């Protein structure tokens, strides 16, 4: 019995020595690992990975807008448009009163021909002939009743030969014509009437203008006076561009 107790004590002491040696070895390993980590600087590397630095953004640069001169300057009017009467309120009232008093005459419409053979043998019009026709048209305009607004246009290639798109001075449209698309009637000097498709946003005639131009054999260089005798009716005076050498 006494022998067994001694053996048990010896075994316990040996177990304690093994435990102590294990703990000592573990502590030594921990210390060695700490030294290795410090040598490799892994702590700073791990902190850099865990907290990435935000990229630096350049500072915002505020640009100052240059000061704009808002002084209103009077609108310049071209010499040809300067002859247009100002659309004052009183003038509009007078025009509406007179236009309603114009006698309603039964409409005279004619069959529009599509024959444009007159353009084949036509002679080219000189600059002098064009200017002469324009001056005559402006003289006719000056003799017309100022109560009825009017404007003068010299015919161009796009008006009477190809395209047949007739632009109207914007100032005239803004002052006197409707603000929406509608039909405008052109009345020639014989009293014949032609329906035009008026485009308000583009201030021009399109549909119907070709028939008017062909029916009256208008050519590049002719001049026309357009007189507004009713809110959607215009009287047209045609002045031919004729060279001195033409027969």
TrEMBL record:
<dbReference type="InterPro" id="IPR015300">
    <property type="entry name" value="DNA-bd_pseudobarrel_sf"/>
</dbReference>
<keyword id="KW-0805">Transcription regulation</keyword>
<protein>
    <submittedName>
        <fullName>B3 domain-containing protein</fullName>
    </submittedName>
</protein>
<keyword id="KW-0539">Nucleus</keyword>
<feature type="region of interest" description="Disordered">
    <location>
        <begin position="67"/>
        <end position="88"/>
    </location>
</feature>
<keyword id="KW-0238">DNA-binding</keyword>
<dbReference type="Pfam" id="PF02362">
    <property type="entry name" value="B3"/>
</dbReference>
<keyword id="KW-0804">Transcription</keyword>
<dbReference type="InterPro" id="IPR044837">
    <property type="entry name" value="REM16-like"/>
</dbReference>
<dbReference type="InterPro" id="IPR003340">
    <property type="entry name" value="B3_DNA-bd"/>
</dbReference>
<dbReference type="GO" id="GO:0005634">
    <property type="term" value="C:nucleus"/>
</dbReference>
<dbReference type="GO" id="GO:0003677">
    <property type="term" value="F:DNA binding"/>
</dbReference>
<feature type="domain" description="TF-B3">
    <location>
        <begin position="151"/>
        <end position="242"/>
    </location>
</feature>
């Amino acid at each position: 019995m006494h022998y067994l107790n001694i053996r048990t004590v010896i075994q316990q002491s040996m177990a304690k020595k093994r435990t102590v040696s294990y703990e000592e070895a573990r502590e030594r390993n921990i210390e060695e690992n700490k030294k290795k980590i410090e040598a490799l600087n892994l702590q700073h590397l791990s902190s850099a990975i865990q907290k990435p630095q935000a990229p630096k953004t350049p500072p915002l640069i505020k640009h100052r807008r240059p000061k704009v001169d808002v002084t209103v300057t009077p609108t310049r009017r071209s010499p040809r448009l300067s002859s247009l009467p100002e659309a004052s309120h009183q003038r509009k009232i007078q025009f509406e009163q007179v236009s309603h008093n114009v006698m309603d005459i039964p409409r005279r419409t004619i069959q529009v021909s599509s024959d444009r053979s007159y353009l084949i043998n036509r002679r080219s019009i000189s600059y002098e002939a064009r200017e002469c026709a324009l001056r005559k048209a402006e003289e006719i305009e000056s003799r017309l009743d100022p109560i009825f607004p009017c404007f003068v246009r010299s015919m161009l290639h796009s008006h009477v030969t190809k395209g047949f798109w007739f632009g109207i001075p914007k100032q005239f449209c803004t002052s006197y014509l409707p603000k929406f698309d509608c039909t405008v009637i052109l009345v020639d000097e014989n009293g014949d009437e032609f329906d035009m498709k008026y485009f308000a946003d583009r201030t021009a005639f399109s549909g119907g203008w070709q028939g008017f131009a062909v029916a009256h054999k208008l050519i590049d260089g002719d001049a026309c006076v357009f007189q507004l005798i009713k809110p959607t009716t215009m009287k047209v005076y045609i002045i031919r561009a004729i060279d001195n050498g033409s027969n």
